[in-house]
Every structure is written in structure tokens, then in C-alpha cells.
Design goal:
- The structure holds two protein chains of two kinds.
- Chain A is an alpha/beta fold.
- Chain A is built from 13 helices and 15 strands.
- Chain A has helices at residues 20-29, 58-62, 72-87, 111-124, 141-150, 165-178, 195-203, 241-246, 271-274, 288-300, 319-333, 346-349, 356-370; strands at residues 5-14, 17-18, 35-36, 49-50, 100-105, 155-159, 184-191, 232-240, 253-262, 310-312, 342-343, 372-373, 396-397, 402-408, 413-420.
- In chain A, the strands form three sheets. In chain A, strands 1, 2, 5, 6, 7, 8, 9, 10, 11, 14 and 15 form an eleven-stranded mixed β-sheet that branches. A two-stranded antiparallel sheet of chain A has the order 3-4. A two-stranded antiparallel sheet of chain A has the order 12-13.
- In chain A, helix 3 (72-87) packs across helix 5 (141-150) and helix 10 packs across helix 11 (319-333).
- Chain B folds into two domains: 7-259, Thiolase/Chalcone synthase (Peroxisomal Thiolase, Chain A, domain 1, 3-Layer(aba) Sandwich); 263-411, Thiolase/Chalcone synthase (Peroxisomal Thiolase, Chain A, domain 1, 3-Layer(aba) Sandwich).
- The model of chain B has no long low-confidence stretch (mean pLDDT 94).
- Chain B is built from 13 helices and 15 strands.
- By secondary structure, chain B is an alpha/beta fold.
- In chain B, helix 3 crosses helix 6 (152-160), helix 7 crosses helix 13 (347-361) and helix 10 (278-291) packs across helix 11.
- In chain B, 32% of the residues lie in helices and 19% in strands.
- Chain B is globular, with a radius of gyration of 20 Å.
- Chains A and B meet through helix 4, helix 5, strand 6, helix 6 and helix 7 of A and helix 4, helix 5, helix 6, strand 6 and helix 7 of B.
């Protein structure tokens, strides 16, 4: 007997709002979360804008106890977990703790902690490094702290697959429910905004505004020239459908299918093929991996392309990704591609890297619940190569039964998840 | 989703402090050779201890196309080399083999071959190199920055061998290898892949070395798991990669079969970031056995996490006692970390390889450096000498920071 996986709770912290209702309200209004960075000094850099969560007070969510040694990623994901558990009205008890798990996507969530720990050793000498910071140097520390704080004992997994990490974490969590290893999983993703990650994207030339121009996040628009980096954390309560019904939980959506496929096409044109790194824009990806991932997700969900009512895109305002995504949607959906609204919430929340997929899932649930397709904002100039319906600038009413959410990573990873309306 | 598809191990690739290639690794495991030596990766003058388990004689150019070497961090280099050895060992692509499984080639290939890698620190050496350059006011090149994401490891390997299938990177610290192998097993069982290249890798890291020293859990000279006078663990590096394959395909192409994977279990202590828990470890072993549909009396060998720290070994032994009851005294439990040191995310993958070879050959590798019994660790730790012993089923234990526990069940392959 196959188990169905549903979503019964949401916790989210993003640059445009904390909590699902705030997040949805701002998305439907088409507002952006970009502002001057306050977390670190950017005076020596060309870009000073990001999607920072400026009003984040961890004490308000987690209290003072046990907070001192937790880094920002850990505080964000724990706060998201708390909101999600409350939203799902979930009681984690001694009895069900062993059938509850945690699955989090993050890639650079601990980068700042790791770098600082090393720098302390270099500057002060290795014998003077504070050992209490060492546990923060493992990449699974944010997820593990969620298990510790909320006493979740079933399993605890961290997946680091770049842009795809939180979609991968959600599909992994769904697998664990289907395999009877858990009834409930807290699944999602987190990335903090820190100087190391920002400097990395900056020095690779991936950030819009790197050339001294005004930073601009405008997915699919002809003017797009790079990402605006952001931070975020989102946790979804994934649950076996029967389990959710039994405890009278309110079911927000079901996970209908997912696919994961790698795109090995970069070797021919990419830095790793030719030697010498020339920037992420040089990755020429033909889209085979993304095409496979979407096709596998449709098969897994037993849906046809025409059943998809809305596509939440991975497009992050870079030349290559937005165009590749457009091409792949056309290949998979044929003429129907022009009838499906395709939008990128990154136009509002920015590129939150490994958290982006989880943020997109939260957005898609809001779109299904309210019957509104989210806009792609900052859209003014049409790119002839990107000619789909991107829902420019204004949200639109539409009944949505099935949403396709996609993530594509420049290193070749691709993930796709299809969410459906429960009992649709 | 659950079905009867069986998953077997058809290729092994090892890069370790005691040998490159599984043959040398296995030979040295059985001889009880130690891979511990003075650290050369960085200057340890200002550190408390000076020994570690570095991989000696690793020449990346023997495995990796030259133009790519400088673009790969050490973790990726080690994993790349181990993956190449494993793929060759499984005859996945050799033309001279009677019926190799052709790796997916080019456009339209079915994505039936995927990769799952586990790591603790992943690209940590790139972070260290960047810090060195920041401290000395040197420019940070794009090549270095592009090595930062941990998933450069599976993506580089997938690109080199044209693997279109699922591609995952597990950052679940020192249990990561088992997580990756476990999920690879899931992907094949659920028919989302036919073959998964699975394992773990970690480089020798200054950050880990500093951290474990500051935690006062690093042994100064040697690693002595289960010994009363054990002084701690030994930071090491390495990569272990296994080729996991759907049984029917392995049989069809007449692949070498080392062993079968019959289940695994995960658990989380949910207590403390660094202190292991008897309950968490016990639960993990119980779940693994339940999934593999075996009982405690079916287990012939436990490949211990056995780091050599006071608290790990004592806790692990207590958990084994709790799960195995009166059987525990007869159960051979050895720690190959006594020889390898602790190669972090690669540890459980290398230990899974040792389990595969133990069930294939009915020999158990020893716990070396064992001198004085500890009443709190009164297990049979296969002291100092390998042992001929029928091994039909081996459990591979691994625990990690964050209380992330994983236990894999490796079984003798019988058709």
C-alpha cells in the first residue's frame, strides 16, 4: 500500500516577511525585499544590496536559553521549525519522536562559522581557539540543532546540492515517509547571508551590480545581468496522509511527484572542461538534466504536461539559467508551454541559494490556496529568447490544481517537484 | 514503493592512509598495519598533537585529467580517484569486459546511473586556502571560489563519467558515507536508478585537526579503540566509493558481486551536538536489523564506529550490550579506525568496504594497538590480529556530530 505525502505546516523567514501569511501577502503585492546590507561591511565591494532578513529577532522565537553558541543559519532554521510545528499543530512526544525526522538542504549554511573558526586559529594560534565554536563547523549543525531543540529522533539529514538542496531535501523526506521510516518529517532549507558567501558570489561576478551599475533582479527580462543574493529559511511539515487525517490536521497540499537528474553536458564548454574558471555564466547547459527531472516528476505524479497549471521557476536573473529554463519548459510542454503561467519569486525574494526551493514551495502553496498566480516583478523589457507568460509585475487570479517547482544548479544538479491541491 | 528489488555491491574504490585500491587496503587491514604518521599537510608546531592519518603517495595525475586537477579541492580529488577505481573494479565501462554496463553516453541517454556522496567537511581545504590568502592579503582566484560548494565532488565525478541519474551530496558529518550508501540503496530499490556510485570522502583538514585537539579528544601517537588507556581519535582523510547495483542487472552483465546490502537504519540522539547516546545508537542498529529482516543472532560481525575516544567507545559498547544482550560477548566487534585513523565522512564508506570484503572472504580485520582491557568495553574487539570467521552478516556502525547515527547491513551474497 503506497503512502501519500501531504504538507500540514509551514514555517518561513525571508527577506520579504516572516510567517506564511506575511510572506504570501508581500508576494501577491509584488514587493521586493532588497535593501542595504547591515550584517557585514560591504564598503570594499561593488555591490551593497541583498535580501537580508533585517527584522529577525531569534529570542522572540526561541527564547534566550541555548541561543548563545548558535550561528545565524541555525537560529533561522530553528525559528522556521518552530513556526512550522505550531502551524501544523504538531505535538512531538516521546512516543512519536522516533517516527519524526528532519531533512534540511543547505550548502553554505555553516560557511561563516567554518571560516571564522579557522581564522581564529590562524590569528590567535590553534591552542587559543574556542572549542565551543567547533560543533558549528559541521554542515549538519543547523539541522541537528532542530532535532535537539524539538527532540526529533527518527533521523536527521542534511543535503548540500546547491540551488537544488531544499527540493532534494523535500523529496528525500517524502521518500522516508513512503518507505515507512517516518510519519512526519520537518523538511526545508536554510542559507544565511554572510560575508564569505557574498564575497564568493561577488568575486565570481555573479551578482547584479558587480560592474558598478544599479543592482537589478529581473528574471526573464532582457536586462537581466546577475543575481541579488538573499537569505532565508523555510520548514514544511511533511506527513503521511493517513496520519494527518487521523490527527485532524489541516492539509495544505500534497506532494504528487518528484524527479532528480544530473546534467553532465557542461564538460564540453565549462570551466572544468577547458581549464580555467571564467564565471558561472560560462556554464553552457543544454538542459538535458532539467528536462529529465521534470519528465520524471510528471511520470511520478502520473500527470500529463497539460495538467500543470502553474510553474514556479528557478530563474534568478542570470542570462543562461533563465533562457535554459525557458527552452526546457517549451521542450517538455510543447505548445502548451505558452498557456502556463511561469513566474520566479526570486524577482522578489532574491537568490537564497539552498533555501530557494523551500521558499518556492511555500509560495506555491499560497498560490494554490488563494487561487492566485504569483508575479515576476521588475519585468519591463522582453527578451526574444524568453517568450513565455511570466506573469509580469502583477499577480493574477487562476484556479491552480497542480504546480511544478523547479531548481537548477550551475554545477549540473536539477530537481523538480509537483505539488497538488489536496482532494483536487 | 517498497519492493523486492535486491541491491548488490559490484565495485570498490579506496583511497586511504593504509593503501590505494581495495587490494592494498584489505591486505593492510588484515596485516594490522597502521596508517598514522606525522602530519605533513600543514605545520603542527603550535598544535597539541602532531600525528594523523594522511593518504601517502596519492598522485592525482594518475586518476584525474591534468587540466582538471587544479580545479578540484582535495576532497573531490580523493573521491574522483576512488570513484574511478570503483567504476573500473565493477567493469562498468571497460570494453574488454564480456558485458559491461555501458555508462550513459550523450544525448537521450537514460539517467540510470547516479551518485550519492557523503562528507563532513567537503570543500574545507578551499576555505582554508581562502583564509590563508585573506590573512596574507593575497587575491582569491575564481578557481578557488568555484571549489567551495561541497557538491562539486559528486558533480565533477558525474560529469567525468557522464552520469545522468540522481545526484546527491550528504553533509551528515562522520556518518555521511553510510547516509549516502543508504540512500543509493533506496534509489535503486525504488527503481529510480540501476546503479549508484556511493560513498564518502574527506580531506585532511586543519580545521578538524584544530577542533578535535581543542576538544581534547585527539590521541597524541596512536589510536587505541576499546583499550583502557585509549587517548582519543586520530584525524585522517580518505575516500571510499562503492558501486551499488540492481541485482538483476549485475547478474545479466556477469558483474563481480562482493556482497549484498539488505537494509539500513538512521536515528538521531536529539540530545547533544557532540556526546553520543546509548539510546540513539541502539535504536539505529535495531532499525537497520528490522529493515533487513534479521535478528540479533544473525549478525556475525560489527564494524564499529570505534573512534578511540573515551566516550564514544564506552557508549558504543553499552549500546551493543543493550541490543545484543547475552550475545554481545561472542560478537566480534572491531574498529578499523585503529589503523586508518578517522577519515570523517569517508569513514563509514571505507568501513562498508571492509564489511563487504569481510563477508566475501570470511575474515574479520582486527582492532590494533589493543593492550589493556577496559571493563566498560568488555566486547571481543578482535585484538591485534585478523581472524578467520564465518561472516554472513555484518553491521556497519557510524555516528556523527549532531547525534546523526547510521547503521548499514551488509550481507553475504547468495543467489
Amino acid at each position: 500500500m503506497n503512502r501519500n505525502v501531504v504538507i500540514t505546516g509551514i514555517g518561513i523567514l525571508s527577506s520579504i516577511g516572516i510567517g506564511k501569511e506575511n510572506f504570501w501577502d508581500v508576494l501577491f503585492k509584488g514587493k521586493t525585499g532588497f535593501k542595504e546590507i547591515t550584517l557585514f561591511d560591504t564598503s570594499a565591494l561593488n555591490v551593497h544590496i541583498a535580501g537580508e532578513i533585517s527584522d529577525f529577532d531569534p529570542v522572540a522565537f526561541l527564547g534566550k536559553k541555548g541561543l548563545r553558541t548558535l550561528d545565524r543559519s541555525t537560529r533561522l532554521i530553528n525559528s522556521a521549525a518552530k513556526l512550522a510545528i505550531e502551524d501544523a499543530n504538531l505535538q512531538i512526544t516521546e512516543e512519536n519522536a522516533h517516527l519524526t525526522g528532519v531533512s534540511i538542504g543547505t550548502t553554505f549554511g555553516s560557511l561563516h562559522s567554518i571560516s571564522q573558526f579557522d581564522r581564529e586559529g590562524l590569528i590567535e594560534g590553534p591552542k587559543y581557539v574556542n572549542p565551543s565554536h567547533f560543533p558549528n563547523t559541521v554542515i549538519n549543525s543547523p539541522a541537528s540543532q532542530v532535532s535537539i531543540r524539538f527532540t526529533i529522533k527518527g533521523f536527521n539529514t542534511t543535503i548540500s546540492t546547491g540551488f537544488c538542496a531544499s527540493l532534494d531535501a523535500v523529496s528525500y523526506a517524502a521518500d522516508f515517509i513512503k518507505l515507512n521510516r517516518a510519519d512526519v518529517v520537518l523538511a526545508g532549507g536554510v542559507e544565511e547571508l554572510c560575508e564569505e558567501t557574498f564575497l564568493g558570489f561577488h568575486n565570481l561576478g555573479c551578482l547584479s551590480g558587480f560592474d558598478g551599475s544599479e543592482p537589478l533582479c529581473c528574471p526573464f527580462d532582457a536586462r537581466r545581468n546577475g543575481v541579488i543574493l538573499s537569505e532565508g529559511a523555510a520548514v514544511l511539515i511533511l506527513e503521511d496522509e493517513e496520519h494527518a487525517l487521523r490527527r485532524g490536521a489541516s492539509i495544505m497540499a500534497k506532494i504528487s511527484g518528484y524527479g532528480n537528474s544530473f546534467d553532465p553536458s557542461p564538460p564540453f564548454n565549462s570551466p572544468l572542461g577547458k581549464g580555467g574558471y571564467r564565471g558561472v555564466e560560462e556554464f553552457i547547459v543544454d538542459g538535458k538534466g532539467l528536462r529529465n527531472a521534470i519528465t520524471l516528476a510528471l511520470q511520478d505524479a502520473s500527470l500529463h504536461p497539460e495538467n500543470i497549471d502553474y510553474i514556479s521557476a528557478s530563474a534568478n536573473s542570470t542570462k543562461v539559467l533563465d533562457r535554459m529554463e525557458t527552452n526546457v519548459i517549451k521542450e517538455v510542454f510543447g505548445n502548451h508551454a505558452y498557456n502556463i503561467p511561469v513566474s520566479s519569486i526570486k524577482s522578489m525574494v532574491g537568490e537564497s541559494f539552498s533555501a530557494s526551493g523551500a521558499l518556492a514551495i511555500v509560495a506555491a502553496i499560497g498560490a494554490m490556496q488563494r487561487g492566485i498566480v504569483l508575479p515576476t516583478v521588475n519585468y519591463t523589457e522582453k527578451d526574444p529568447e524568453c517568450d513565455l507568460d511570466y506573469v509580469p509585475n502583477t499577480a493574477r487570479q487562476k484556479h491552480i490544481n497542480n504546480v511544478l517547482i523547479i531548481s537548477s544548479d550551475p554545477y549540473g544538479n536539477n530537481a523538480a517537484i509537483i505539488l497538488g491541491k489536496h482532494d483536487a | 514503493m517498497l519492493n523486492n528489488h535486491r541491491v548488490v555491491i559490484t565495485g570498490l574504490g579506496v583511497i586511504s592512509s593504509i593503501g590505494i585500491g581495495w587490494e592494498e587496503f584489505w591486505d593492510n587491514l588484515l596485516k594490522g598495519k597502521s596508517g598514522i604518521s606525522p602530519v605533513t599537510s600543514f605545520d603542527t608546531t603550535n598544535h597539541i598533537t602532531h600525528n594523523g592519518g594522511e593518504v601517502k603517495n596519492f598522485k592525482p595525475e594518475e586518476f584525474i585529467p591534468e587540466e582538471k586537477i587544479k580545479l578540484l579541492n582535495r576532497s573531490s580529488q580523493l573521491a574522483f580517484a576512488a570513484a574511478k577505481l570503483a567504476i573500473e573494479d565493477a567493469y562498468l565501462s571497460q570494453e574488454n569486459y564480456p558485458s559491461p554496463l555501458p555508462l550513459p553516453q550523450g544525448e537521450g541517454a537514460r539517467g540510470r546511473v547516479g551518485i550519492c556522496i557523503g562528507t563532513t567537511t567537503g570543500s574545507i581545504q578551499a576555505i582554508e586556502h581562502i583564509n590563508d590568502r585573506i590573512i596574507s592579503n593575497k587575491e582569491i582566484g575564481k578557481e578557488l571560489i568555484s571549489q567551495l560548494p561541497p557538491h562539486t565532488t559528486p558533480s565533477t565525478i558525474a560529469r567525468e563519467f557522464d552520469l545522468n541519474g540522481p545526484n546527491f551530496m550528504f553533509s551528515t558529518a562522520c556518518a555521511a558515507g553510510n547516509y549516502a550508501i543508504g540512500y543509493g540503496f533506496d534509489l535503486i530499490r525504488s527503481k529510480r536508478a540501476d546503479v549508484i556510485i556511493a560513498g564518502g570522502s574527506d580531506p585532511f583538514s586543519r580545521i578538524s585537526f584544530t577542533g578535535f585537539n581543542q576538544f581534547s579528544v585527539s590521541a597524541p601517537e596512536k589510536c587505541q579503540p576499546f583499550d583502557k588507556n585509549r587517548k582519543g581519535m586520530m584525524v585522517a582523510e580518505g575516500a571510499g566509493i562503492l558501486v551499488l547495483e540492481l541485482l538483476e542487472i549485475a547478474i545479466r552483465r556477469n558483474a563481480p558481486i562482493y556482497a549484498e546490502i539488505s537494509g539500513y537504519g538512521l536515528s538521531c540522539d536529539a540530545e547533544h551536538m557532540t556526546q553520543p547516546s546509548v539510546d540513539g545508537i541502539s535504536e539505529c542498529m535495531i532499525k537497520a536489523m528490522r529493515e533487513a529482516k534479521i535478528e540479533t543472532e544473525d549478525v556475525d560481525y560489527i564494524c564499529a564506529h570505534g573512534t578511540g575516544t573515551t566516550s564514544n567507545d564506552k557508549t558504543e559498547c553499552a549500546a551493543i550490550k543493550e541490543v545484543f544482550g547475552p550475545l554481545y560477548k561472542k560478537m566480534p566487534v572491531s574498529s578499523i579506525k585503529s589503523m586508518l585513523g578517522h577519515p570523517m565522512g569517508a569513514a563509514s564508506a571505507l568501513e562498508a568496504i571492509a564489511c563487504a570484503l569481510a563477508v566475501k572472504n570470511d575474515i574479520i580485520p582486527p582492532t590494533i594497538n589493543y593492550e589493556t582491557p577496559d571493563p566498560e568495553c568488555d566486547i571481543d574487539c578482535v585484538p591485534n590480529k585478523s581472524r578467520q570467521h564465518p561472516v554472513n552478516i555484518a553491521l556497519n556502525n557510524s555516528y556523527a556530530f549532531g547525534g546523526n547515527n547510521a547503521c548499514l547491513v551488509v550481507k553475504k551474497f547468495i543467489e
